[in-house]
Every structure is written in structure tokens, then in C-alpha cells.
Write a structure and sequence with these properties.
Blueprint lengths: L1 E6 L21 H20 L4 E5 L9 H11 L4 E8 L15 E6 L7 H9 L4 E7 L5 H10 L6 E4 L8 H8 L5 H5 L2 E2 L4 E2 L5 E5 L3 E3 L7 E4 L12 E2 L4 E2 L2 H4 L7 H4 L14
Parallel strand pairs: 1-2, 1-9, 2-3, 3-4, 4-5, 5-6
Antiparallel strand pairs: 7-13, 8-12, 9-10, 10-11
The structure holds iron/sulfur cluster (SF4) (2 copies).
The site of one iron/sulfur cluster has 14 residues, from helix 7.
Length: 276
């Protein structure tokens, strides 16, 4: 089984969050065409593999407002060798098309309170026909929204809270967020990772639009290319070369944290095995 974090050239988003960590831009028609071609090439490659693949799309911008991401999610979800296909999304897209996906499709949904009306967001989440987690950035200004969302979401829906980048939480503040997400402590501090075993570069890889393979999104060293097969010879267990890892899509694969046990069956879409 190979887990792939795919990030194509798409970098535009229909939202404009103040805390957005990405360098957003307006994609030109040529850039959108290139993103579409890269995604279709990647999806075609997945379908040709003789082994099991799981995919998490982690676009710089919003993918599901583009037809090719919606199509890829549905089509990949039906392939016999795809165990899971998930995408990080702000859920601004319409959602009726998701009923065409198999139960192997999943969403990592983030609520951005300044960008969408609460009732509109809640209504969409409640009607989702596929597995999903919902999350929010732990900005103190979002605390009332987060509490309200927790109480309005079905109990079976996991609501995660991401510690805001660079913010230090007092124990009292952390307790408030932990009352909403009991796993908030996992996100509260960056994880020291230097020298520790991490599944990336072995059973997990990061792939960009031209097929360049790296172990994860955060380590620039290139392992090879997906499409010429050169990455395969580089796959092996290896320690993390970075001082710290502070993003869930990275440290979930850091072995000493034991998060594969916490998120068994929902590692890519961030759903704990035991919830609620
Ligand atoms: S929805 Fe995500 S990508 Fe878009 S502006 Fe907000 S944080 Fe950035
Ligand atoms: S711990 Fe994080 S930064 Fe280090 S290799 Fe794993 S995913 Fe990459």
C-alpha cells in the first residue's frame, strides 16, 4: 500500500482567510489547464498500478470548485486498487455530485468563519453523503463559532482544532479548545522529529504536478519521479531530517506519535478510530 499526498500547481482559492498559510494567486487559464492535465495524468497513473494506493489531495488553493478535482475524487473512489481518496476543502462547492462517489471517498473539511455564513456551512456539512471530518483554526476569535459548531454538528462528526501557527496557548486556553477537540493537545505544539522514524519516504510520498516525488511536503530532497518509476528504488524507512514537524498531514506519519492507532481507518481524512 502506498499513500500519496498529491499537490498540483493549482494555487487559487475562492476564499481569502487572513491566516491563510499559502501564497495565493489568481490562476490563469493556462495554469488551470496545466493543473487539470497534471491531475488527469496522476489519476491515470493511479489506475494503472498493480498495488493498493491511498490518496490525499492537498491543494495550495481550493480544488473542489474545479470540475477535474470533483471528477478525480469520484472516479478514483471506484477504482479497485484505491483504498481511500480524500481531499482538503473549504466546502464552498456544491455537494450533490458527492453521491456519485463510493464509500472510499472522504473529505477533510475546514470551516473558515470569516468567509462563509454559519448556517450555510452547517447545512452543507449535515447533508454530506461521504465520510468527513470538520475542523477550524484555533484563533481565539473563532472560539464561539467552534463551540456552536460542536454543539450543532452530529455527535458522530469529529471536529478537530488546529493550533494557529505561531500562537502559544496558555493551559487555560488549551483546555477551552480541548473541550471542543479532545485531540487538541496533538496540534498544540510542533513535534520534535529530528532523527525519529517517519513513514514518509517509505510507505508515504508527496507528489507534485510533474510527478516529482519527495518524502513529504516539507522536505525538499527529491526521491525521483512517479512517472518514470525512479522513485521506487528510493523508498525505504528513514528518519526525519527536520528539527520539527508541525502540520497534521506530516506528523500523522511520524511513528513515535502512534497516530496510526488513533486514526486507524481515517488517517487521511483525519477521523479518529474511536469517535465519539
Ligand atoms: S480556504 Fe484555505 S486556501 Fe483558501 S484562503 Fe482560506 S486557508 Fe487559504
Ligand atoms: S516528521 Fe514531518 S517533516 Fe519529518 S519527514 Fe515526517 S512528515 Fe516530513
Amino acid at each position: 500500500m502506498l499513500t500519496i499526498l498529491y499537490r498540483g500547481p493549482l494555487a487559487s482559492c475562492d476564499y481569502d482567510c487572513a491566516y491563510c498559510p499559502f501564497a495565493k494567486r489568481r490562476d490563469s487559464p493556462e495554469q488551470l489547464r496545466a493543473d487539470r492535465e497534471a491531475l488527469e495524468r496522476f489519476a491515470g497513473w493511479v489506475g494503472e498500478q498493480p498495488f493498493e494506493v491511498s490518496v490525499l489531495f492537498t491543494p495550495w488553493g481550493e480544488g473542489l470548485v474545479r470540475s477535474w478535482y470533483r471528477r478525480a475524487l469520484v472516479e478514483l473512489s471506484w477504482l479497485p486498487n484505491v483504498a481511500k481518496v480524500a481531499i482538503q476543502t473549504n466546502l464552498s462547492c456544491r455537494t450533490d455530485w458527492l453521491s456519485e462517489a463510493s464509500d472510499r471517498a472522504a473529505l477533510w473539511v475546514t470551516y473558515h468563519p470569516t468567509q462563509v455564513a454559519y448556517d450555510r456551512f452547517l447545512g452543507k456539512v449535515r447533508s454530506l453523503p461521504v465520510r468527513h471530518s470538520v475542523g477550524i483554526v484555533g484563533d481565539p476569535a473563532h472560539l464561539p463559532d467552534a463551540r456552536r459548531l460542536r454543539s450543532d454538528l452530529p455527535a458522530r462528526t469529529y471536529l478537530w482544532v488546529n493550533a494557529e501557527e505561531g500562537r502559544l496557548y496558555t493551559d487555560e486556553e488549551a483546555a477551552e479548545w480541548s473541550a471542543i477537540d479532545p485531540l487538541f493537545h496533538v496540534s498544540r505544539f510542533p513535534h520534535r522529529s529530528a532523527g525519529l522514524p517517519c513513514r514518509t519516504g517509505d510507505s508515504v510520498i508527496s507528489v507534485n504536478g510533474d510527478g516529482t516525488v519527495r518524502r513529504c511536503h516539507f522536505i525538499p530532497e527529491v526521491l525521483g519521479n512517479l512517472y518514470d518509476g525512479s522513485y521506487r528504488a528510493a523508498l525505504r524507512p528513514r528518519p526525519c531530517p527536520a528539527a520539527a514537524c508541525d502540520c497534521h498531514i506530516g506528523y500523522v506519519h511520524l511513528e513515535p506519535l502512534g497516530l496510526y492507532d488513533v486514526f486507524t481507518g481515517g488517517i487521511l481524512e483525519r477521523i479518529p478510530a474511536v469517535w465519539p
